[in-house]
Design brief:
Layout (H helix, E strand, L loop, with lengths): L3 H11 L5 H19 L5 E7 L4 E7 L3 E8 L3 H10 L4 E2 L1 E6 L6 E7 L7 E6 L2 E2 L3 H12 L5 E8 L1 H10 L4 E7 L2 E2 L5 E2 L5 H6 L3
Parallel strand pairs: 3-4, 3-5, 3-7, 7-9, 8-9, 9-10
Antiparallel strand pairs: 1-2, 5-6, 11-12
The structure holds 1-O-pyrophosphono-5-O-phosphono-alpha-D-ribofuranose and uracil.
The site of 1-O-pyrophosphono-5-O-phosphono-alpha-D-ribofuranose (PRP) has 22 residues, from strand 5, strand 8, helix 4 and helix 6.
């Protein structure tokens, strides 16, 4: 995303001196702005409406309903911003953490809307690092019969984008920034550090 507002807010998010309060607010703001692009292809249908002046054809969202699925924990930090834009969306949760030694995703929770297979699903997580967590989350959702899935991240490493694209070539990935690389601990460089810890103050 090259929108100046997104770039400005992302730089504030990256800054280690940004407070937890500002970090949380900015993540939600960037999530909202990114969701605007992610939903650009939603179908519309016309309906006749009457303005105070005359009758006209108004365009309204039609058909596919949305489910937002944050990957716990850090994905939670993006949900409020997205729901500001799409208050009728349903929210599912997938709990995964990266094993700090192997960097492999470990599942601990999964609760999705009952009608998820009929919805367009937006999987959200601020960080796409190795891509293991996102690919696993998308895999769970596909097992529930979903065919239309998008992935939305704030910051991605090229390694993670490649991994998800190879595992799920049908899933479009929307990122606010594509960073340089991963370091030897699996952190994105320059990145923003540990998104979950910065959101929830756990370190
Ligand atoms: C972070 C992040 C992603 C994952 C990305 O979560 O929010 O879910 O790492 O890494 P990957 O692409 O290499 O899988 P983490 O595992 O730290 O859990 P947390 O959100 O509970 O802090
Ligand atoms: N998870 C994070 O929170 N940050 C990274 O840089 C990589 C994975």
């Amino acid at each position: 995303m090259d929108h100046p507002l997104i770039q400005h807010k992302l730089s504030m998010i990256r800054d280690e001196n940004t407070s937890a309060k500002d970090f949380r607010e900015l993540i939600n703001e960037v999530a909202l702005l990114t969701a605007y692009e992610v939903t650009r292809d939603l179908p519309l249908q016309s309906r006749t409406i009457k303005t105070p002046i005359c009758q006209t054809e108004g365009k309204f969202l039609s058909g596919r309903m949305i489910a937002v699925v944050p990957v716990l924990r850090a994905g939670l930090g993006m949900v409020e911003g997205i729901l500001t834009l799409m208050p009728a969306a349903k929210v599912g949760h997938i709990g995964l953490y990266r094993d700090p030694e192997t960097l492999e995703p470990v599942e601990y929770y999964c609760k999705l809307p009952v009608d998820i297979e009929q919805r367009e699903v937006i999987v959200v997580d601020p960080m796409l690092a190795t891509g293991g967590s996102a690919a696993a989350a998308i895999g769970f959702i596909k097992k529930r019969g979903c065919k239309r899935i998008k992935l939305m991240n704030l910051i991605a490493a090229p390694e993670g984008v490649k991994f998800v694209q190879e595992a799920h070539p049908d899933v479009d990935i929307f990122v606010a920034a594509l960073d340089e690389k991963l370091n030897e601990h699996g952190y994105i460089v320059p990145g923003l550090g540990d998104a979950g810890d910065r959101l929830f103050g756990t370190k």
